[in-house]
């Protein structure tokens, strides 16, 4: 695993466009080198702004979108189409605007899915889908995992003080009692995050500055889940100036 690299941009808009350009290049490079690419999407304001910036970029034609595998780092356990689902935001920002292969868009199912209200079963189903795609091991070597981060230093649905951040075996877990609504979610775990080749933590705003500091200084996981976010080849903290103000 690698150290963390910090890249600071003037403001949230510049950040979203710079990360979008970087993402397009990363996917195009992975496709050129390996024939395919896999990306893990995130929710939140910045995560969705990045996807919208990708959709708006003329450079998006550098990517063969039908050959990209899309995964999610977490999902709110709500039915398909619910505006609060991370999937819904990603579809309207990007996936509805580029020619993706629906079979390569791997959503975490909600209560309207095949497992009904059984969120543990829905999490296990996603773990199975990851295992099937991995070939070897439990999780594919994602080319990029995008991670938004909360002011409490959570990533995916791994919140400070909840047990999921300490999960060492499972790659996907059900989360109950999330401090940020809705309370029930599905999340990739730390081992799944760390299987990514590159992990990009994307954060904007003064409200994230302390969490960024905790992440960069490697604070304990229970206090700052973001500190666990390390890619196998590269870990980037992509920030705007206010989010970097405590470094
Ligand atoms: O599931 C969620 O509640 C969100 O996806 C959340 O994890 C988000 O990614 C971060 O809180 C950053 O969000 P902002 O960029 O909006 O601050």
Automatic annotation (TrEMBL):
Residues 10-234 form the Glucosamine/galactosamine-6-phosphate isomerase domain. Pathway: Carbohydrate degradation; pentose phosphate pathway; D-ribulose 5-phosphate from D-glucose 6-phosphate (oxidative stage): step 2/3. Gene3D superfamilies: 3.40.50.1360. Keywords: Hydrolase. The keyword Cell cycle does not apply. It catalyses: 6-phospho-D-glucono-1,5-lactone + H2O = 6-phospho-D-gluconate + H(+). Its EC number is 3.1.1.31. Hydrolysis of 6-phosphogluconolactone to 6-phosphogluconate. NCBIfam families: pgl. Belongs to the glucosamine/galactosamine-6-phosphate isomerase family. 6-phosphogluconolactonase subfamily. This is 6-phosphogluconolactonase. It comes from Actinocorallia longicatena.
């Amino acid at each position: 695993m690698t150290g963390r690299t910090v890249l600071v941009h003037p403001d949230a808009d510049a950040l979203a466009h710079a990360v979008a350009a970087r993402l397009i290049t990363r996917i195009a490079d992975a496709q050129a080198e390996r024939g395919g690419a896999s990306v893990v999407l995130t929710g939140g304001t910045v995560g969705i702004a990045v996807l919208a910036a990708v959709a708006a970029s003329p450079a998006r034609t550098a990517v063969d979108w039908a050959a990209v595998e899309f995964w999610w780092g977490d999902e709110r356990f709500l039915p398909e189409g619910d505006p609060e689902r991370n999937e819904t935001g990603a579809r309207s920002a990007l996936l509805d605007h580029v020619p993706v292969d629906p079979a390569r868009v791997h959503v975490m199912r909600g209560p309207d899915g095949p497992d009904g209200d059984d969120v543990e079963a829905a999490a296990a189903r996603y773990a199975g889908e990851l295992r099937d795609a991995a070939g070897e091991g439990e999780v594919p070597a994602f080319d990029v995992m995008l991670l938004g981060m909360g002011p409490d230093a959570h990533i995916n649905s791994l919140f400070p003080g909840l047990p999921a951040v300490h999960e060492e075996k499972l790659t996907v877990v059900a989360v109950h009692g999330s401090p940020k609504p809705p309370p029930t979610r599905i999340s990739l775990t730390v081992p799944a995050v760390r299987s990514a080749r590159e992990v990009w933590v994307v954060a904007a705003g003064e409200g994230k500055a302390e969490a960024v500091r905790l992440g960069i200084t490697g604070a304990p996981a229970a206090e700052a889940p973001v500190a666990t976010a390390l890619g196998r080849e590269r870990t980037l903290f992509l920030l705007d100036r206010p989010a970097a103000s405590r470094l």
